[in-house]
Design goal:
The protein has 6 helices and 6 strands. With about 170 residues, it is α/β, with parallel strands linked by helices. The chain has a single domain, classed as Maf protein. Strands 1, 2, 3, 4, 5 and 6 form a 6-stranded mixed beta sheet that branches. Helix 1 packs across helix 6. The chain is globular, with a radius of gyration of 15 Å. The two termini are about 25 Å apart. The model has no long low-confidence stretch (mean pLDDT about 95).
Length: about 170
């Protein structure tokens, strides 16, 4: 089985490989470069979900022979004056769509003061402020903030598992 991911980020590709391998005989997971169609840092649930949907749709076009096309998008969601990092996963299989989300975690307010959602510079700022290197392609800020108990791969894998629910338990849908 071929699975295509709307990103070349090794964390997202690995998260999809782990999630799909729980249920299917996955031969290959391929990341393709696509646009999310949203800001570098989406700042609402709707925008973050749209980024995941666009990535899934664009990856389905890029690899029409794939069994599943997956899009993952992370953003910053505000809930009652608290700012949570959260990701959505969208999984396409033909005309069926499955959606899931990651665990969310509160971001330190001083990080948010420097965050420009329209710029890719946030990645370097997060690395600098949290003392990491290339965190978005390794453990993620969640890895630093949980002292290694959860990684970005972990929470993105769980989002994809949640998005696969409709495909692994179709009798309920």
């Amino acid at each position: 089985m071929l699975v295509v991911v709307g990103s070349q980020n090794p964390v997202k590709v690995e998260a999809v490989r782990q999630a799909c391998s729980l249920y299917f005989d996955v031969e290959e997971v391929v990341g393709v470069k696509v646009s999310s169609g949203v800001k570098p840092v989406p700042t609402s649930e709707a925008e973050t979900l749209q980024g995941a949907l666009t990535r899934a749709q664009e990856s389905a076009v890029a690899a029409a022979n794939a069994e599943f096309a997956v899009g993952i998008e992370a953003g910053v969601i505000t809930v009652n004056d608290h700012h949570l990092a959260l990701a959505f996963a969208a999984v396409l299989r033909g005309d069926q769509l499955g959606l899931g989300s990651s665990a969310g975690f509160e971001l330190p307010t001083d990080l948010l003061a420097e965050l420009d959602p329209t710029s890719d510079a946030f990645k370097q700022m997060i690395d600098r402020r949290l003392g990491g290197h290339n965190l978005f392609q390794t453990t993620g800020s969640i890895g630093v903030l949980t002292q290694g108990q959860l990684t970005r791969t972990d929470i993105l894998r769980d989002a994809v598992v949640c998005a696969l629910v409709r495909f692994v338990s179709p009798q309920y849908y």
